[in-house]
Structures are given as structure tokens and as C-alpha cells.
Design goal:
The chain is of the alpha/beta class. The chain contains ten helices and seven strands. It binds ligand 7JE and magnesium ion.
Length: 214
């Protein structure tokens, strides 16, 4: 049986990156996905916007919905201050298995907790399982039709506080129209669109940054 795209991505990291060097892991994945085989990582262009929002927020507790192969997990974890934590949620065991190895190759396993399962089941367990009071930062990059229900679930579970920053990938391509409507029409969010391009392409895409107002 052949290898999968995530497995080929992992091989590219092991071949071209330096163990313990997150920047080299990010570059190896970007090179592979731009020149060899496209994959749905947030990528280098939108990644710079993610970096700048993260630097501004400097979260102590961060949540990522949709780990995939761990590219954005590495981008986020490499910028976290000592003692800060990132919880990333992945329901696909094959993706999770590759992500664990890529996160470990970058040397960031001590900052990251990868939880396997669907976000809808795991979000209500965050407080009891991980002792989370609330998240400072949430990166949404899982199924686009789950952005609204999971945002509402985070609200209902008291996991957002005044000032929590939500950053959503793919609000243009593939698109998350219900989510844009939800955060833009809600008095509980202050939203801003960051125009960019779909990873490794010239197609328009962007990130929506939404601050929870309480
Ligand atoms: C419930 N739950 N809980 C945890 C959890 C985790 C997952 C998986 O990580 C997973 C699997 C498959 C798809 C996604 C969403 N991502 C995308 O669909 C996407 C598409 C494209 C694109 C764009 C143009 C194309 F032509 C094709 C694909 C570009 C992008 O950046 C994407 O993020 C996420 C799923 C549901 C989950
Ligand atoms: Mg995405």
C-alpha cells in the first residue's frame, strides 16, 4: 500500500529539516507543499499574519481546532512564552499520528497537548481535563461548517473571556460564510478581515480576527 500525503510531508521534514529547529520544519513543509505536493496548511503567507496576531496577543493558553499535520501547531507553539500552553484538537487518527511526529521533530512537544477526538465532544471537557479557565487565543482551521457551532460552544462553556482573540482560517476559500455573518453581526465580537491568499496559490483567501467583548 502506498504512503499518504501527510506521511510524505513527514518524510520531507525528516529529510530536510533540523531536529529541534521549528523554523526549519516550517520551511521544509512550505517548500514541499509549494514545489512538490499541495496540502492544506495555513502556509507561509497567511502564516505571517498568524505570527503577527500571536505576537500581539502573546497567549498563555491557546486552542487550535484542526491540527492536520501540525504545521500551524508548530507556528503557534514556537512563538509561545515559557510556561504557555497550546491545546490542539484533531479527530483523524492518521493526521494526529503524523502531527505528533512533526511537533516532536520541531522540539515543541512540551508546549503542545494534542487531543484526539471531535471538537464538539472535547470543548465541553477542556476545563475538567486540562484545568483551563479560559482561552486567550483560538485558531479555527477544522471543518468550516463547525466554526459557528464550536464558537457558540466555547461561549456556552465559559471558555472565552473579555479580549479572547479568535482567528479563523479560510473565510474566503473554501469559505465560512455563516461564521463571517455570525461574528460580524454579533455585538459580542469586534471583527477584522486580513486579506491574503490560499496557501501556496494566487487564489484569494483570508483570516478573520474576532475579539470577544464578553
Ligand atoms: C470536528 N473536528 N474536530 C477536529 C477536527 C479536525 C479536522 C481535520 O483537521 C480536517 C480534516 C479535513 C478538512 C479540514 C478542514 N480544512 C479544510 O477543509 C481546508 C481546505 C482547504 C482547501 C482549499 C481549496 C481547495 F481547493 C481544497 C481545499 C484549505 C484549507 O486551509 C483548509 O483548512 C480539517 C476535521 C474536523 C474536526
Ligand atoms: Mg485552513
Amino acid at each position: 500500500t502506498g504512503s499518504t500525503r501527510p506521511q510524505r510531508m513527514l518524510k520531507a521534514v525528516q529529510k530536510n529539516a533540523t531536529k529541534g529547529d521549528p523554523e526549519s520544519v516550517i520551511s521544509a513543509i512550505d517548500y514541499y507543499c509549494r514545489h512538490k505536493e499541495w496540502a492544506m496548511n495555513v502556509g507561509d503567507e497567511k502564516g505571517l499574519i498568524l505570527d503577527s496576531v500571536l505576537t500581539e496577543v502573546n497567549p498563555s493558553t491557546a486552542l487550535e481546532l484542526g491540527t492536520y499535520c501540525g504545521y500551524s501547531t508548530v507556528r503557534i507553539a514556537r512563538l509561545l512564552s515559557p510556561g504557555s500552553k497550546l491545546i490542539t484538537v484533531e479527530f483523524n487518527p492518521d493526521f494526529a499520528a503524523v502531527a505528533r511526529q512533526i511537533i516532536a521533530y520541531a522540539g515543541l512537544q512540551d508546549k503542545v497537548t494534542l487531543v484526539e477526538g471531535p471538537s464538539g465532544d472535547l470543548i465541553p471537557k477542556m476545563k475538567e481535563r486540562f484545568g483551563i479557565k479560559s482561552f486567550d487565543f483560538v485558531f479555527l482551521d477544522h471543518w468550516k461548517d463547525r466554526y459557528v457551532p464550536d464558537t457558540k460552544l466555547l461561549e456556552d462553556c465559559g471558555l472565552l473571556r473579555k479580549g479572547t482573540v479568535l482567528l479563523a482560517d479560510n473565510v474566503i476559500c473554501p469559505g465560512a460564510p455563516e461564521y463571517l455573518k455570525y461574528v460580524k453581526n454579533s455585538a459580542h465580537y469586534e471583527s477584522q478581515y486580513y486579506k491574503s491568499n490560499l496557501e501556496y496559490t494566487k487564489v484569494e483567501d483570508g483570516l478573520e480576527k474576532s475579539v470577544f467583548l464578553g
